[in-house]
Amino acid sequence: MVTFASGVADLLAIRELTVTFRTGGRDVYAVRGVDLSVAEGETLAVVGESGSGKSVTMMAALGLLPDNAEVSGSIRLGDRELLAMEERALRSVRGAEIGVVFQDPMSSLNPVHTVSRQIAEAIRAHSDVSRAAAHARAVELLGEVGIPDAKGRADDYPHQFSGGMRQRVMIAMALACGPRVLVADEPTTALDVTVQAQIVDLVDRIRAERGMSVIWISHDLGVVAQIADRVTVMYAGRVIEQGSCADLFDAAVHPYTARLLRAMPRLDAVAGAELEVIPGSLPDPEAQPEGCVFAPRCDHTLDQCAAARPALLPLVAGGRHAVACHRAGDRLTHSQPPGLVGGAPAHERSAGQIVVALDDLRVHYWGRGSWRRAAAPVRAVDGVTLGLERGRTLGLVGESGSGKSTLARALLGLEKTSGGTVAFGGQVLHTMSAAGLRKLRCTAQLVFQDPSASMNPALRVEDVVSEPLRINRRGSVAEQRARAGELLEIVELPRELGRRFPHQLSGGQRQRVAIARALALDPQVLVCDEPVSALDVSVQAQIITLLSRLQAELGLSLLVISHDLAVIRTIAHRVAVMYLGQIVELGSRDDVFGGPRHPYTRGLLDAVPIPDPHRRSRPVPLAGDPPSPVAPPPGCRFHERCAFARPGLCDTTPPPLEQQRPGHWTACHLADEIAASSTAPDPVRSATG
Amino acid sequence: GSNGGTEDTGSSDAAGAATAETLRIGIMSEEGNLTPHTYATGFPGLNLTMLSYDSLMQADENGEPQPWLAETVESSPDGLTYTLGLADGVTWHDGEALTAEDVVFSVDYYKAGPPGRFATAMANVSQAVAQDESTVVLTLGVPDPSFEIRVLADVPILAEHVWSGITEPDLAPFDETTNIGSGPYRLVESDPGVSYSFEAHPEYFRGEPKVDELVVVQFADEAGATAALRSGEIDTMMRSISPEQIDVLRGAGSLDVVEAPEYTTTLLVFNTAVAPFDQAEFRRAVALAVDRQRLVDDVFLGAAVVGNAGWVHPSSQWYDESVETVYDPEAAARLLDDIGLTDSDSDGIRELDGASLSFELLVASNNALRMRLAELIGEQLGEVGIGVEVSSVEMQTLDDAVWPGYDVAQGRNYEMSMWGWSASSQADIGQMASLVSSDPAIGNLNVTGYADPETDALAVELDTELDPTARAEVADQLQQRIAEEVPFVSLLHPNGAYGYNPDVFGDWVSITGSGPMTKLSFIPDDGQP
Amino acid sequence: MTARVITESAPEPQIVLRRSRVSGDRTRVLGVIGAVIVLALGTVAVLAPVLAPYDPTERAGTPFSPPSAEHLLGTNDVGQDLLSEMIYGTRVSLTVGIVAAAAAMVLGTVVGLIGGYFPRLGAVAMRGVDVVLILPFLPLLIVLAAYLGRSIVNTVIIIAILIWAPTARVIRSQVLSLAKRDYIVAARSMGAGHGYVIRRHVLPKTLLLAIGEFVAATSGAILLESSLSFLGLGDPLQESWGSTLYWAQARGAFLTPAWKWWVLPPGLLIMLSALGFALLGYALEQRINPRLRRS
Amino acid sequence: MNARRLGLARLGQYAIVLVVAVTLNFALPRLMPGSPLALIAGVEAGEMTPEERAAVTADAGLDEPLVVQYLTYWKSILTLDFGYSFRQGTPIEELVLGRLPWTLLLTLTALAVSGTVGIALGAFSAWRRGSRWDVGSLSFMIALESTPQFWLGMLFIALFSVSLGWLPSFGATTAGADLSGLAWVADVAEHAALPVLTLSILSIPAVYMAMRYSTLSVLGEDYIRTAQAKGLRPRAVMMHHVVRTALLPVTTVLALRLGWAFGGTVVIETVFSYPGLGRLMYDAVSARDYPVMQGTFLVFTIAVLLANLLADSLYPRLDPRTRV
Ligand SMILES: Nc1ncnc2c1ncn2[C@@H]1O[C@H](COP(=O)(O)OP(=O)(O)OP(=O)(O)O)[C@@H](O)[C@H]1O
Ligand SMILES: Nc1ncnc2c1ncn2[C@@H]1O[C@H](COP(=O)(O)OP(=O)(O)OP(=O)(O)O)[C@@H](O)[C@H]1O
Ligand SMILES: [Mg+2]
Ligand SMILES: [Mg+2]
């Protein structure tokens, strides 16, 4: 029996859990001996890179693993052994005692049933109540999780809700039977930061109210720092370190944990700080290494690291901070907090030469198949004026659906514009001939969010990389191949990788290949649409560093789109904030992050969780969801969500994007007032401002 | 002629119940509404229609026209006037009496009505006059030796009180009035494409019919009908069964088969306008090379009569025994050699002007037996060095190639084809002229395009000679001419073989050449013509 | 606060749950069975002259004779050996099936490809497909048969015309989804023309799908050929299984004991060959269709 | 709102397809070799004089220029007055309406049977995917799908009608039997039994495959895991979540099959001598009865179009995601 030093019994205790998937002769060792536990009323965060076995561990606890999984170990809920339970008994645990919230609220709700029905179903599965009573309870729950007009919306279908509201519905469903443990498997990864902040608040509030235990799976250390009592770090199917939140963030012992923390871009770091990169990638889940799973990527290996598996042991006997590392006792000194990046000047106001200029650009989508063209269009991009400076990086941030990708595509001439112009060094895009357009395509290239989707899986990496050359008939096949090798080296990949297929690469390697391909034609402009959001923190750092280096070496102009403000802050010289198809704030990185003038920018910044367990006072995040781009609100498009909005002004007159400070444009009537009235800027944030 | 009944011996080998309450009959072709203007096919459509209607004369068991509605038939020596005395006590199905006025009306009605078989038949009747209640005088435009068989024994008489109100006879719907005739049966239910029901006319002037009710059901094909016959769902079918089924049905215990020779012909026709079919020698060689007996034995399992070189069926009274039908492939080969069609490159196929002598033989794909015949003929011709490629085509497509627009004047578009004429083409010897005359007015069935002055002269003579003996002489000459000239090859005449259930009804009466599926089978012995 | 120690000696309940069901998808077997059937039939077709005891056009025995030592499946209405006919029929049925399906695939793939890649043109093309799909096919068949004449080649053409349309639909929807893929957008953004994109990215993927469709369509084509022959709309003089059935039906074999050796074997062979290709097609679809490949 | 407009746009597309199809329906009979003359005039067309033939042709309106005939055809469609059968002299509407109920009886019953069986088996098979049962039923279904229709029908006749004598082999009712009430219903049911059985057996595989496929893909959806995580019984998960959702695309398959089945009964109606529309068309085609051909083609065309329309509009109606 697992016990706690304090004598408080674990509510859910997992011990020596191993899960192996038998897939047609090949075995996937997904979980290789995991110990973790959560006590009553406690929030345990489980962090780790993608594929480290977090979800599988939780699914094992619920008995929901697929048939080909082989499980051993022990999973105890109170004093019952879940692994030994019959399916029937396990069903009475699922939903009733352990509630689950899954990552993707879009696909986790059944699209053909109303939300109230799906909640009521969970209630009726575990208690003998009438349909009406269950429905009433469902409505109540919806109210509890903050669905406005719960009664009116209870009989709506999931697709009628926004992502954040759907996640609330999921939470209501998980809470329906008053579970003792709530498992939240990356519940906010698919959501905007603003919505993430709302959900984090909600879960924490409910946990406090109900005295529930929460297991929060996440790869976002910021969220973890904000919510967790204790943290378990998983790596390649093992727990490598666990301890209280403070222990981990302040004094991580395992080399992996330490490096992970430093690989993470953070808003409270020094702007332009270089991220530390963890070389290599997760081990093959089909391999079964003898020793420490992290050894191949570790700087501090001893002989025994490769030979023997380190046990998860408390640092001090009876202590709560446990580490699975042979050198845990060595007090390794990990490098100091990140310093300044050499190349990028900390602060910059002078305008560079404009390479690409957008002037009042509009992209409207008309409903497909409509035979009468009178319908209102989706105003995806609605009057954007923006310049991209030579050799600099422009960061574009905004909530999902604000038109960032559309803007990027229009900039590259991949989207038909509905108004305004895109000009490359004076040449207006839509007046160009086909040949001119083709030539221009060589000067501007796109790096996609999802690297694997942007490569034809049937082509070898070298063919993927040399494809632009082939398309534009540059050189012979041999030359193209040689150039592909060079390009791979530029993005720090070995040439031999060229013989592989994309699916044989890791996510980070794939993104490098995508970048290499984008560089093939020696472009001046690189547009990166969410280049790192599909990647793990450690890989993210590699890519961000790579992009910065390439910019410095090749003098590229970058447009980087991201919803992750910390990433933008790390990489961009200038930042544009987009809301509902329009730019609401534009300025140098330090101006925007240090002294945001638009309430929307402030809301966005406030919503970003700070990966520091000591700074948990969270301001009220932005409420609500962005309105539909089909019928944007009159006046200031943001006024409905703005705490400062002044009736009669903000809801009638659209504010122009003005240069209210030198080099700092804002589209807000009340910018000056708000700046004056609000509390003093955050000390850490203003560190560089 | 006689008016007495003949015993039902000799012409039919059938036996079984002599009367029945209900007889269920299968048919395989889609028929329309069964009136003289709307029936669809000659067989069985017209046979079914004639259950409800009578003509002035009626073919007897030997196929000879005998007095029927007209008790007496007298023609003037010049053959231009026929005086008909109607039988007494003939009533329509609704009880009205059939009078001379009805006959006169019918003649005029057909002449004025839309074109068709009966309008064509009546075209030559220039005048019809009712002398009294029961006497009609018909005046002909030109003498017609076939008038009795072709017109008097064929055209159904209509009830004036029914049809005088109908202006569009070819659209006449089935209803209470249009189903009134004078025949042994009245059509009481009509669902074209599905079924018909006939009820016996108890007041029939030749005696009450032997079967009370006839139910006629339409099948999609012979296989379905045969299955139904075997399963007892129908009692007989109006389609000669395939030869291989004869023994099967006979062996099935409860069933029997009535078998009789029929005048239906199966021909090999060729386009005599193209070389080398334009040479009589070549045609003769083809005829000599075809082993008709083998066709009968192999394909029809013996259930057919070998075709006669002179066209006329051996059972017919017009048959000229002196015409010889020979199979002699060596003679055929010699003939071919003689006209210069030799196999110069020894590939087994002769050459004509350097090109190998090969023809496409068309055959309708819906007729399995003819397809087998075609295959066999192909083999047989191949043995004398004539290449044949059998090509099965859909029936209408074949018709369109051989007989475009049903008008021989429009030419033809084939080399060789399997072909056939219905029984009526033999029943009336006059039809022989229409097969071979090059004058489209006479030779309207001359689908081979055969033209020969001597034959044409004989054809005219056959069409006009009124004296029976003289006409027989002309017919003999024409048969000899045909045998010599070979405008087509008469291959065989399949026997009629009709499966039936003798427990239900089996008192069949066959007409030579036309088989048992006519109203004669249902008319009591003492009412037979 | 709670902390946790690992008590080394604690007796842990160790439970091993073995997977309850074999995960190996048994439906894989189906593909193997299909391949075996197709291979076997293919061998028979190729080796027909060696395997068949008689020339199928030869009148080798008494007509309508039941199975005997000389004629294992008896003879037909003109004394041809039915076993030889079955063996040679394999050639016709497989050839017609394969060639017709291949022709239909080429047509369907081209139309589907163009229709999917150029959406405007595609809408028009798909209306054409709709029309083909709703036309009454019997008269279409007769018209075609009349114009083309009856021959094995024309049967192939007719079948191809009848079955290409659904393939065009399938291919089109695949191309439609392909065209939205990031890697195609990427190629376009690098300046690739339509020809390049189709050749390099769309066609290879689509061909794979077309191959799966082709195998499945072969099964349909074999069935169609037999139906056409049976209805007398094909060429009954060609030695195919369908025409054997046509003759069996025309000569009343269904109603005599002959059905056991004259009707059953061709029907079963048609079924078997269609089944072989259908199974193969099913297995291929499982491999090709990404939606089915998951988990 | 948008959906309605989309619907109208679809309708417009259907209208175009309909026009093209109607045009082809007009053209096909006339493209076919052979002429309906024999039909119009009775068999002895050969005995007619050329004048008479011309008169007959004119009477049927076949001497008009094709354009005029074409316009007349459109007029007949728009006025719902299709003229008379060359062969039977019966109005086309009467013929078609007389046959329609029988075809509907066959197709609807077969669809109901095959739909129910196919859906149940398909769902079960997917639920037990990879099991012996799944493999067994899957291969059986594929085998069924590979069975020639006519062959099965004929074997059924040989077995059930000729050998066993249990069921009638032809027709829709017992001809000449004056039945009414229950006896009539029983008679009709008896006659429909074999054709329906054949049709159903042969349509089950398509439904089965569609349902199995659909169920398999639903089983992989995240919300199924959610339902399981709620602690629902497997039966409840299967019924409320899997089957309910998997049925959506299958309804489309069913609707499309309806249109297809409608035209696909030709063979069955021929084998069983069943007086449905398919046979009416077949006979009309063999005889070149132009008006009947056009009439039946039109019915089939419209049936398929309606089925497509039904499939198109059914899906959005059943799926809340596309419901506005
Ligand atoms: N059904 C399965 N069959 C085979 N392998 C599986 C299966 N499910 C998961 N795995 C493997 O198990 C390992 C752990 O997966 P898991 O989903 O637990 O990762 P995770 O830590 O939750 O990652 P993420 O952050 O991406 O959700 C991965 O290598 C994954 O590929
Ligand atoms: N092809 C399209 N047709 C219609 N609407 C579209 C289309 N593409 C995008 N939109 C709409 O345009 C708006 C902007 O979309 P866009 O993809 O540019 O947003 P984004 O800021 O990139 O969002 P995300 O962060 O989720 O990628 C959204 O409301 C989207 O639904
Ligand atoms: Mg996970
Ligand atoms: Mg985007």
From TrEMBL, chain A:
GO terms for biological process: peptide transport. GO terms for cellular component: plasma membrane. Residues 609-631 are annotated as: Disordered. Gene3D superfamilies: P-loop containing nucleotide triphosphate hydrolases. It is found in: Cell membrane. Pfam families: ABC_tran, oligo_HPY. It comes from the Bacteria. Residues 14-261, 356-605 form the ABC transporter domain. It is a peripheral membrane protein. Keywords: ATP-binding, Cell membrane, Membrane, Nucleotide-binding, Transport. GO terms for molecular function: ATP binding; ATP hydrolysis activity. Belongs to the ABC transporter superfamily. NCBIfam families: oligo_HPY (TIGR01727), PRK10419.1 (NF007739), PRK11308.1 (NF008453). This is ABC transporter ATP-binding protein. It comes from Jiangella asiatica.
From TrEMBL, chain C:
The keyword Ribonucleoprotein does not apply. The keyword Cell wall biogenesis/degradation does not apply. Keywords: Cell membrane, Membrane, Transmembrane, Transmembrane helix, Transport. It is found in: Cell membrane. Signal peptide: none annotated. GO terms for biological process: transmembrane transport. It is a multi-pass membrane protein. Residues 90-281 form the ABC transmembrane type-1 domain. It holds the Pfam family BPD_transp_1. It comes from the Bacteria. GO terms for cellular component: plasma membrane. The chain crosses the membrane at residues 29-52, 92-116, 128-146, 152-171, 206-224, 261-284. Belongs to the binding-protein-dependent transport system permease family. This is ABC transporter permease. It comes from Jiangella asiatica.
TrEMBL record, chain D:
Keywords: Cell membrane, Membrane, Transmembrane, Transmembrane helix, Transport. PROSITE patterns: ABC_TM1. Its main location: membrane. Residues 100-311 form the ABC transmembrane type-1 domain. GO terms for cellular component: plasma membrane. InterPro entries: BPD_transp_1_N (IPR045621), MetI-like (IPR000515), MetI-like_sf (IPR035906). The keyword Transmembrane applies. It is found in: Cell membrane. The chain crosses the membrane at residues 7-28, 104-127, 148-172, 192-211, 246-272, 292-311. It is a multi-pass membrane protein. Belongs to the binding-protein-dependent transport system permease family. Pfam families: BPD_transp_1 (PF00528), BPD_transp_1_N (PF19300). Gene3D superfamilies: MetI-like (1.10.3720.10). GO terms for biological process: transmembrane transport. It comes from Jiangella asiatica. This is ABC transporter permease.
